[in-house]
Amino acid sequence: MNTNSIQLYLDDSHLLEFDAIIIRSGIKHAILDQTAFYPEGGGQPSDIGVFLSGNLKWNVLKVIKRGNEIFHYLDKDVPQGIKVHCIIDASNRIWNTRRHSAEHLLTGLIENIEELPKVYSDLEKLEFQPSKLTEEQLTIIFNKFNEIVEKDLPVKIFYEDRSNINPINDHRKQAFLKKIPSNLDKLRMVDIGGYALTFCMGTHVKSTKEIGKLASLTLQEAKKNRKIIHFKLNN
Ligand SMILES: [Zn+2]
To answer: Which domains does the chain possess?
Structure first.
């Protein structure tokens, strides 16, 4: 039985309610025919929310993609074959989406200053090694980030043929491309206002104003020229 779900979140990061059929279920988990629940990945945590059917309610605690199947982990068992109305926790999704989009924009702005190998990033920090990034440069990035937010520039999602992408001299992107399954010819790209372009399957804001301004951006020096940049958005 084919239990691959239609991934609604890829086409619409703002879809927070939808109907679906439970096409397979097991102990406290279920696979839907289609889902807008984002499964954890790419540094972004999964959505949480609820399934509703009549007077019954299931809490969706975590969502994980394994191969092409998306597992929704629940607080109790759900019968296979029923239709459920699904509601994603909006504040959790929006907060994650804003911080994830901020992570892209910061990566683009920092990589633009000097060719720095990013070794890690999540919704609160980015790490570069080796890095010569200075406090002065960070102040420039902080101001530029907030200027881009103020300008409310569009965020574009589009699909690009793998053969058109040739990241010459960019070892990080070359390594990233190698990790994408070779049968995937069209890659989902995200462009944050023309300042950050990358391959990504995550959820993103529609324009930069939605991200909100940075409240703080701080530099922490670590061993072996590693620099950790902590960021916080205004709530
Ligand atoms: Zn992304």
So the answer is: 6-88 (2.40.30.130), 93-233 (3.30.980.10)
